[in-house]
Amino acid sequence: MEIYYFMGYIDTSRPCEKDFDPSETVDKGTVSIGKEEYQLIKNYIAGLQNVESDKNSTYSMCLQCNMYDSSKDFETRLSVGQFGPMSLGDNFVERNDTLLYLLRKNAGFYNYYHLNDLPRYCKEVERFGVPENYQDMTAYFDTSNVLYAKIRILVE
C-alpha cells in the first residue's frame, strides 16, 4: 500500500485522482502494520457504499491510498478530500471515519497539524483520540518545494 498526503493545512484546491511524480513528494520511507490491521483496512475499503455527489473530483485533496495486489500491479485507489467526498476508483463512496483514521494514523498524516488543531481539521480524532505515535512536526517541514508526502505501508 502506498499513501500520498498533503503535508499540513490545506489552503489550495488540488485534485488527488492523479499519479504523483517523485519530484512532487517527500519520501517518508516505509512502516509496517500487522496482518489484522491490514485486513481491517481492506475490509473497510471493500465495504464502502457508493453515493451520489455533486462534485466531480476530490479537490482539496488530503490523502490518496493506492492498494496493490500480490504482483504489485495496481489494484485500487482511494482518494480522500479534507472535508468532502471520498472516491474509490471512479466512484464516490461514503466517508468512513474509522478507515480514514487508520490510514492517516499509519501514514503519519496527523504529525503535520498542531495538536490543538487536530479535532478541528480531522474530525475523526474527536472520536478515536490522538494516535500514540503522534509527533508535532509542524516546525520541521518546508512545503516551498513539495507539498505531498509518500509512505509505503507493508504488512508484517
From TrEMBL:
<protein>
    <recommendedName>
        <fullName>GyrI-like small molecule binding domain-containing protein</fullName>
    </recommendedName>
</protein>
